[in-house]
Design brief:
Length: 409
């Protein structure tokens, strides 16, 4: 199939989905950028499944939830109390049709980034799944807002997911993101391109928790972004426990005075898996504060790269940038690399980093085994403590089960 025919087919798909004209124009601009690259070497590839039925709205469970299977919407539910306060939690297609005023500027702002970021051009051109969470001014949500993405069975369509979380001034929200594979979810390899972005306005606070437990057939590119305004706070806790190769990037910009963030990532690489985990926190304003904590375990012939970048820009006086990167090696054949970076362009700031790669602490092992604990159980206890960077109560049993299945010592 010639490129022109393929592009016409893709355009017709946009029309069948009844997308607004402004988004179709934006997609075509992104496609034009991709035509300049070697992206379309695989001619004839499908990027969109059949248009799925609207998600089922559930009311029996009070928890705010949205679940998607591959590129299909399964269900979404939002308590009436939150709806009456103006909270929105819906799928991507509904967000661009029903909430255009809130999301249009967000998407159009990406045009200027196409030239320097091909992955972003891919997302705009082919986004076929995702969600939109909106928290109005001064609304506080105590229930966790849960988003589930589940690997579809035997689908070769690459998945492009876009999650937008927009929290207005003074808003408060706890957000939970789960990327997972169910049993017997197919043997065909798929590519998951997952983008989630948090925009926190003045004085907003977001607790962001993510659990990634995708199977070996999923090659995942996961990018998470944050843009924090005056005195906003976003705390990130990400558990990178996938079994397939993973490229995880987290980038947070503290764009106004007093913004602060903590990014905590726990990861395990096993088998012949390769995980690249890179985190950047950029202090763009005075008295902003960023902290990066990355703990990882490598076993078998796994490979793990941790990179942390703390960047304090000019005019960001009083800024704080801290990072800690630790890796625990469980095999002589495993490979690990840590790369802490500090980029400081201003005086009167605080910046520090710590990094280490080490094997199991034999003194701690001896202490545990002297209490009658077998070596395997002792190793598990040490690893659980090493990777426990703090998590909410609803993650504890899930965390223990996944960790037990991931470790083979």
């Amino acid at each position: 199939m010639k490129k022109t025919c393929m592009l016409e087919k893709i355009k017709q798909t946009f029309l069948l989905r009844k997308e607004p004209s402004w988004l179709i124009d934006l997609r075509l601009q992104a496609l034009a950028r991709l035509l300049e690259s070697d992206f379309f070497q695989k001619e004839g590839m499908d990027f969109f499944d059949k248009v799925s039925d609207p998600p089922v709205l559930k009311e029996m469970d009070p928890s705010p939830r949205l679940m998607q299977l591959g590129s299909r919407n399964l269900y979404e539910q939002l308590p009436m109390e939150l709806i009456n306060q103006g909270v929105i939690f819906t799928n991507f297609l509904d967000s661009i049709k029903r909430h255009e005023k809130l999301v249009k500027d967000y998407w159009q702002a990406k045009i200027e980034l196409f030239e320097s970021n091909q992955k972003l051009a891919e997302l705009v051109a082919f986004v076929n799944s995702g969600a939109f969470l909106y928290v109005p001014k001064n609304v506080e949500i105590t229930l966790p807002m849960e988003y589930f993405w589940v690997k579809s069975e035997n689908s070769e369509i690459p998945i492009y997911v876009s999650i937008l979380i927009l929290v207005e001034e003074g808003g408060r929200v706890n957000y939970v993101e789960r990327l997972q594979s169910v049993e017997k979810s197919g043997n065909l390899p798929i590519f998951l391109h997952f983008f989630s972005e948090v925009i926190a306005k003045k004085g907003a606070k977001v607790n962001f928790w993510a659990n990634e437990t995708l199977n070996q057939q999923v090659k995942a590119y996961i990018w998470r972004f944050g843009k924090l305004h005056q005195n906003a706070q976003v705390n990130w806790q990400i558990n990178a426990l996938n079994n397939g190769d993973t490229d995880l990037k987290v980038k947070v910009d503290l764009v106004e005075e007093g913004a602060c963030t903590t990014v905590k990532i726990a990861g395990i690489s096993s088998g012949q898996q390769e995980q690249k985990i890179k985190t950047q926190v950029r202090n763009c304003a005075r008295h902003s504060a960023g902290k990066i904590v990355q703990h990882g375990v490598v076993q078998d012939q796994g490979k793990l790269l941790f990179e942390g970048v703390g960047k304090i820009q000019k005019e960001a006086k009083g800024a704080i940038s801290k990072q800690e990167i630790r890796v625990l090696m469980l095999s002589d054949k495993a490979q690990a690399k840590v790369n802490p970076i500090l980029l400081i362009d201003e005086d009167e700031v605080t910046a520090e980093h710590a990094a280490s790669i080490a094997h199991t602490d034999e003194e701690a092992m001896y202490y545990l085994m002297s209490r009658g604990i077998k070596r395997k159980q002792a190793v598990h206890l040490l690893i659980r403590g090493f990777l426990d960077l703090g998590r909410p109560s609803f993650f504890k049993s899930e965390w223990a089960e996944v960790l037990e299945g991931k470790l083979n010592v």
